[in-house]
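Thread: Newbie trying to understand structure tokens

Hi all, I'm a second-year student working on a class project, and my supervisor (Dr. K.) asked me to get a predicted structure for one chain before our next meeting. I've only ever worked with sequences, so writing a 3D structure as a token string is new to me. If someone could post the tokens and maybe explain what I'm looking at, I'd be very grateful. Here's the chain:
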Amino acid sequence: MKTLTINMPDKIFSAMRVHPDDFVKEMRLAAAIGSHGKRFLQNRF
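---
Reply by user tm_fold:
Sure, no problem. This is what the structure looks like when written as tokens:
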């Protein structure tokens, strides 16, 4: 499995009003959905 590290300033979490752990969960979900959608479209066309 590959690892991706993103450094973000702490103030971004307060600006978004989200806890860093919740942000990570949402990013993982968004990445999984994006990856699945891309594979789905590639298989269709």
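A couple of things are worth pointing out once you decode it. The chain has two helices and no strands. The radius of gyration is 14 Å. Feel free to ask follow-ups in this thread.
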